[in-house]
């Protein structure tokens, strides 16, 4: 029986060192291996030219550089690109690349499906299947760099400049794997992304928020969407476990939050639900004293969704109230709506395929 290969993408320095020690390799090989995997993004061991052929063969016999399998690659009329990815057990998730004039943002998934069932979110209609591993989370960035030819050295300029953990799933319910992947991304001798260019979005898993700030120090975005518990219980059921008062306290004490590093509150604009001027005023009172900005997100419709998007005029009225109170309140332009790649629209399109059919496509 053939022994399964270990996945190299997702290994941190400790993992690599332990593996190399196990095959009797010299300690300096760690730096070489790290460089080839996370700085050069090689797809085969033959490309690791600083290593002798016997060493490369030893690696090939035990390790794999395999990326997630691309089931579908879609490009929107606005340049947004969405990939449906399949992993080794035939489970699927999606990632999205959003190009802009001054940056390129990769939206990364942390779970297959989602456990939160937020009523306005398409992803929430797909039940949670499992957490993604650190390798599957990091593999999304590696694959995106492959597809965008973004491994140039020196990077002039990088196409992917920012990472947002805003894809499928709740990152703080898969914290161990998310943290491991993000630490590899932030390593200065590898992928080398600044923590200031990484944003983790949570629906409010209060007990994990402080650890995230202390351990990772990345930007925090909070999916708020309502200013009172009654409404938020309906929109974000997690609120029943961690109500708004607890969430706001966790935001006020988030490590590193200051005027230069504000917490972003995400607020999806739902017609006649949470978009009144009164709600805008309540929002101002709710976030008072927190270094913050508010991202207003026009609702992105999906098949069967129970909500409608607020009118442009109502969104503008809401934004003006928030801005006059001294909070930046940019209105996020919907991107990739035609390929269901916009905020709240992600859901594995082939979720109804039998597992056996998906497994067959991987062969």
What report would you give on this structure?
This protein is of the alpha/beta class and 363 residues long. The protein has 2 domains: 6-64, DNA polymerase, domain 1 (Orthogonal Bundle); 69-356, TIM Barrel, CATH 3.20.20. The protein is built from 11 helices and 13 strands. The protein has a 9-stranded mixed beta sheet, covered by helices on one side. A two-stranded parallel ribbon has the order 1-2. Strands 7-8 form a two-stranded antiparallel ribbon.
Write the layout of secondary structure elements.
Layout: E1 6-7, H1 13-22, H2 29-39, H3 53-62, E2 63-64, E3 69-75, E4 81-86, E5 92-99, E6 104-107, E7 111-112, E8 130-131, H4 134-147, E9 162-165, H5 175-186, E10 198-202, H6 206-215, E11 219-223, H7 229-235, H8 244-252, E12 263-269, H9 277-286, E13 292-298, H10 312-324, H11 355-362
Parallel strand pairs: 1-2, 6-9, 9-10, 10-11, 11-12, 12-13
Antiparallel strand pairs: 3-4, 4-5, 5-6, 7-8
Give the CATH level 1 class of the largest domain.
Alpha Beta
Helix-strand sequence: EHHHEEEEEEEHEHEHEHHEHEHH
Number of strands: 13
- Indicate the CATH topology of the largest domain: TIM Barrel
CATH architecture of the largest domain: Alpha-Beta Barrel
Spell out the CATH superfamily of the largest domain: Aldolase class I
Query: What is the SS-derived class?
Result: alpha/beta
Fraction of helical residues:
25-40%
CA radius of gyration: 21 Å
Distance between the termini: 18 Å
Tell me the strand order in the biggest sheet: 3-4-5-6-9-10-11-12-13
Q: What's the helix count?
A: 11
> What is the averaged pLDDT score?
90
Strand content: 15-25%
Low-confidence stretches: none
């Amino acid at each position: 029986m053939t022994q399964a290969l270990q996945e190299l993408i997702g290994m941190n320095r400790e993992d690599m060192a332990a593996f190399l020690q196990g095959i009797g390799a010299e300690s300096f090989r760690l730096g070489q291996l790290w460089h080839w995997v996370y700085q050069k993004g090689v797809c085969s061991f033959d490309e690791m030219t600083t290593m002798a052929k016997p060493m490369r063969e030893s690696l090939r016999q035990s390790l794999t550089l395999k990326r997630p399998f691309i089931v579908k690659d879609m490009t929107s009329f606005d340049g947004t690109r969405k990939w449906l990815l399949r992993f080794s057990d035939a489970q699927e998730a999606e990632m999205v690349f959003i190009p802009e004039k001054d940056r390129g943002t990769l939206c990364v998934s942390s779970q297959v499906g989602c456990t939160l069932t937020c009523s306005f979110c398409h992803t929430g209609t797909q039940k949670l299947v499992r957490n993604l591993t650190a390798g599957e989370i990091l593999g999304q960035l590696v694959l995106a760099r492959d597809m965008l030819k973004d491994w140039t050295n020196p990077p002039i300029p990088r196409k992917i400049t920012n990472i947002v953990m805003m894809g499928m799933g709740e990152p703080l319910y898969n914290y161990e794997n998310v943290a491991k992947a993000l630490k590899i991304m932030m390593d200065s001798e590898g992928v080398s992304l600044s923590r200031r260019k990484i944003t983790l979005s949570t629906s409010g898993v209060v007990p994990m928020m402080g650890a995230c700030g202390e351990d990772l120090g990345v930007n925090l975005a909070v999916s708020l969407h309502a200013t009172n518990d009654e409404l938020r219980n309906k929109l974000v059921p997690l609120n029943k476990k961690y109500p708004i008062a607890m969430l706001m306290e966790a935001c006020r004490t988030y490590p590193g939050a200051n005027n230069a590093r504000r917490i972003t509150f995400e607020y999806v604009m739902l017609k006649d639900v949470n978009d009144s001027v009164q709600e805008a005023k309540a929002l101002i009172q709710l976030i008072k004293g927190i270094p913050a900005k508010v991202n207003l997100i026009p609702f992105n419709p999906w098949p069967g969704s129970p909500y409608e998007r607020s009118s442009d005029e109502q969104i503008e009225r809401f934004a003006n109230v928030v801005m006059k109170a001294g909070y930046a309140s940019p209105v996020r332009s919907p991107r990739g709506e035609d390929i269901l790649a916009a905020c709240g629209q992600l859901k594995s399109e082939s979720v109804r395929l039998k597992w056996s059919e998906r497994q067959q496509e991987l062969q």
